[in-house]
Write a structure and sequence with these properties.
By secondary structure, this protein is an alpha+beta fold. It is 38% helix and 17% strand. The two termini are 43 Å apart. This is Asparagine synthetase domain-containing protein.
Length: 504
């Protein structure tokens, strides 16, 4: 009943002439390259370009809000021109691109693959095979290689962690390519290409606010040229920024809010907001449980990494009639990279790269050799060191690469069964602008509020997340202090205290 959802919007890249005919399922498009061959699901957009010996293959959706370009072919032509000039110019233009995509590059005796700014379109690779194998889903590679789950991975699955540590998957041979790195072929070597220079420090001026607001507004306009748009709304701030960016096309957007039960506290806020703005908002009920056949396909697509409630979400999104499976749903994740996520929750974070600290921030089985080892491997393989990240905050970049790059890419892999999703925040140039604002301005969310006022000020007439307001003044500061103090405890004690806090 659901077989057409298997590895939906997926891809597989293999070396030509060896196991290039080993597509996971029939009916996929086949795109021959020079040394490689691509198998792509019919629902996955793909485009190619070449100039002399240089070839580019784009998988997914791309647009350039910095220069106002929606056409993928024009973007590929620019990338080719920049690649011919220098790697530096190529990466500088890559920073301008938004969307959800994987880019494969051949030419000048080399080949490499990389993803969008924050890895929203997951790229997995086989680290064990002598032949290059890249895919959209870890299960595709595990099936071809005949791989089994590791014992450490089974432990992570048992505790129902929402994502895997570092670049790990349930299979030791299959890795996730994390953001800001590229994968060289055929040797599967990971190389960091961002950041390439120190982050500037910019005051929060009206001019910077206008620049950021323009990127959001242009993003919506460019997306609307290529597809019908929908926007999932919550009571949160990130969602409010996305909503404000749609002001000029509000009569063309399908607004909806997700509900997982009758007591969902956000629905009341979203309903009031939409009424005040004079827009209609549909309710997407995600409470119906999936049947066993759907659950089987879902778990196959995610290699079992996903929690059961997210299967329920994907099931209900798949079943709904509107806005249609070819529409693009605007999501509002990614913004947390610029909102001091970890610094805002923990005091006393060490100012040097420590795999042990990363494991504690992951918080699932943090004291295990498996989790510690995966973060040590991430630090080593991606050259995540103070000298390579310049003056970027360690924890902003860690959140970028090991939370958004891992958790969100898995979430979007799950919902690919039902729809295509894009975040307006998923742009490296935009993230750099937001991260350049002083820490306290970012922590207070002043930039986001000013961007909303610039785009659609009436969006602030309804409070942000009123259901999360603390009843005790100073509770947030106290919790931040206690969380930071606990973080300094040895890993076994830290995990015990965390479990106690969760149960209270």
């Amino acid at each position: 009943m659901y077989e057409d959802l298997t590895y939906r919007r997926g891809f597989l890249l293999l070396e030509a002439g060896r196991d290039a005919d080993r597509s996971p399922i029939g009916g996929w498009d086949v795109v021959p390259l020079d040394r490689y061959r691509l198998h792509a699901h019919p629902k996955l957009r793909h485009a190619g370009a070449e100039d002399g010996d240089d070839r580019l293959l784009l998988l997914g959706r791309v647009f350039d809000p910095i220069n106002g370009v929606a056409d993928a072919d024009a973007i590929l032509d620019t990338l080719l021109d920049r690649l011919a000039a220098s790697d530096e110019r190529f990466f500088d233009y890559l920073d301008c691109l938004s969307g959800r995509f994987v880019l494969f590059v051949e030419g000048d005796g080399r080949a490499f693959a990389l993803g969008d700014a924050t890895g929203n379109r997951a790229l997995f690779y086989d680290d064990d095979s002598a032949d290059p194998r890249l895919a959209s889903h870890p299960g595709i590679l595990a099936g071809i290689g005949g791989y089994e789950r590791t014992d450490g991975a089974e432990t992570i699955l048992d505790v129902e962690a929402p994502w895997f540590p570092g670049a790990a998957t349930p299979y030791s041979e299959v890795k996730l390519l994390t953001p800001n790195t590229l994968l060289s072929l055929p040797d599967a070597e990971v190389t960091r290409f961002f950041p390439r220079e120190p982050l500037p420090s910019n005051p929060l001026t009206d001019g910077l606010v206008a620049e950021v607001a323009d990127i959001f507004e242009t993003s919506v306009e460019l997306l609307g040229r290529e597809a019908d748009l929908s926007l999932s709304l919550s009571a949160g701030l990130d969602s409010r920024v996305s909503l404000a960016a749609t002001r000029d096309v509000s009569d063309e957007v399908y607004y909806n809010t997700w509900m997982t039960g009758e007591a969902d506290k956000e629905v009341e806020t979203v309903t009031e907001l939409c009424e005040r703005l004079g827009i209609e908002c549909a309710l997407t009920d995600l409470s119906e449980e999936p049947d066993d056949e759907f659950l089987e396909v879902f778990m196959r697509n995610t290699a079992g990494m996903s929690r059961w409630n997210r299967a329920r979400n994907a099931y209900n999104l798949h079943r709904r009639d509107a806005p249609g499976e070819d529409a693009v749903e605007i999501r509002s994740n990614v913004s947390e990279i610029a909102r001091t996520f970890y610094r805002d929750r923990f005091t006393f974070l060490p100012d040097e790269v420590r795999a042990e600290t990363f494991a504690k921030l992951y918080a699932y089985e943090a004291g295990s050799d498996y989790v510690q080892g995966k973060y040590e491997e991430f630090v080593d393989r991606t050259d995540f060191s103070e000298e390579n990240i310049f003056n970027y905050d360690i924890y902003d970049l860690f959140y970028w690469e090991c939370r958004i790059g891992c958790w969100l890419s898995l979430w979007l892999l799950e919902t690919s069964i039902a729809q295509e999703e894009v975040s307006l925040f998923n742009n490296r140039r935009l993230l750099k602008k937001m991260l350049s604002v002083p820490y306290e301005k970012r922590r207070s969310d002043e930039l986001f509020h000013r961007v909303i006022r610039e785009l659609w000020p009436e969006c602030l007439n309804v409070p942000i997340n009123p259901h999360k307001e603390s009843s005790f003044e100073g509770m947030d500061r106290l919790d931040r202090f206690l969380s930071g103090a606990i973080l300094r405890a040895p890993a076994p004690a830290y995990m015990k205290i965390r479990k106690m806090r969760r149960s209270i």
